[in-house]
Amino acid sequence: MTTSLTWTCNSCVPCVGCGIDSEHIDRFVQWENSKPDFLPFVFTKSEKSYCKKLSIPAVGLCAAFCTKEALRKALHNPYNFTDCEFFYSDDPKKCRFNISEDLAALFPDLSYTVKILSPVVLHKKSRGNGNVDTKAGWIKNHVTAIVHAFETL
Hints:
Blueprint: E1 15-24, H1 26-29, H2 45-52, H3 57-75, E2 84-87, E3 96-99, H4 101-106, E4 110-117, E5 122-124, E6 138-140, E7 142-151
Antiparallel strand pairs: 1-7, 2-3, 4-7, 5-6
Helix pairs in contact: 2-3
């Protein structure tokens, strides 16, 4: 199966960077029930608290991580991941993206757009014997974040 994805942006300002990151949600399941101080250099306390309240916390953690990594790629520079917060929602209009004043000061002439694609890859659940369990349906196993950085006029 081939997956193709095209995203266009019609903006009157120059796009100075685009970052894309995609991760397996399974990587984040281990932190769903962790103590509040897990990964202190990646997620803020607010993000961790918010994600723990989601029906599937690993999806929120994965989306937040992908957004931070995509932003790093769009900026072409490393930054402190806790200077960026992303709060995932199944409703794209309710997702929230915040950057700290410190990070904004490093890139004062930029604005950002964030697009979360979940899932971009779909797999059917297997019974373990190679047969597909059609009753189990489809599972989401990836989150992808796309961040564009634009010059502000």
